[in-house]
Amino acid sequence: MRAAWISTVAAIGIIAATIMTGTASAEVTSGYQVGESVGAAQVIKVAGSELDGIPAGKELCYRCRMGSRPVVMVFARTADEKLAKLLKKLDEEIEEHQDAKLSSFVNMLGTDVDSLKKDAAEFVKVNGIERIAFVVPKDDSKNGPADYKIAPDADLTVVCFKGGKVTANHALAKGQLSDGKIDAIVEAACSMAD
Predict the structure, then answer these.
(1) How many domains, the chain?
(2) Which of 7, 29, 89, 130 has its CA 20 to 30 A from that of 15?
(3) Element (H, E) at 96
(4) Residue 21 resides in a domain
């Protein structure tokens, strides 16, 4: 009897571990998908690139401002070392692809707008991000504009678009931003500029 009970508990543990592992590595769908048109959305610039001529605190449609340029639009819930690594590589590519007008902006997501603004400014300063603007969505700082379809379980959503049409989408749960994913995102950005 005791052996059957132990076997049942072990089986339940294995099933639970399998489910938890499957959930942690499951694909996340977030943001505009390849082929879709990127709509307008109001944001507030809080830090980053001074090269765009937009002062911190200004409300605007950054997507509209970019026009038909190749753009890497990022939605981030966590500002950590991996995000810094990705953005530093994108910053370098933006400089390298100036002729193609490759651009990028990061939408910081969270519930406390004042903290998002302060943390974004500090992140930019500490990591030396020069060519990427940081913004906070105006109407929904928690999940971004509703029609952008940013999934609550996506810690990072990267939408690459050119001429307003999505060319690549990378959506990742917390902890999934690996060096391989960083390289894939940078490659998607560079392919728009070539």
Answers:
(1) 1
(2) 29
(3) helix 81-96
(4) no
Domain for residue 147, yes or no? yes
Domain CATH code at residue 57: 3.40.30.10
Per-residue pLDDT of the chain (194 residues; tens, 9 = 90+): 544 444 443 434 433 333 333 334 468 999 999 999 999 999 999 999 988 899 999 999 999 999 999 999 999 999 999 999 999 999 999 999 999 999 999 999 999 999 999 999 999 999 999 999 999 999 889 999 999 999 999 999 999 999 999 999 999 999 999 999 999 999 999 999 88
Three-class DSSP category at 144: coil
Residue 40: which domain range?
Answer: 28-193
Place of tokens 């911190």: 56
Give the C-alpha separation, 4 to 176, whole Å. Answer: 38
**Burial level of 121, CB count in 10 A (0-12/13-18/19+)?**
middle
Give a yes or no: residue 18 inside a domain: no
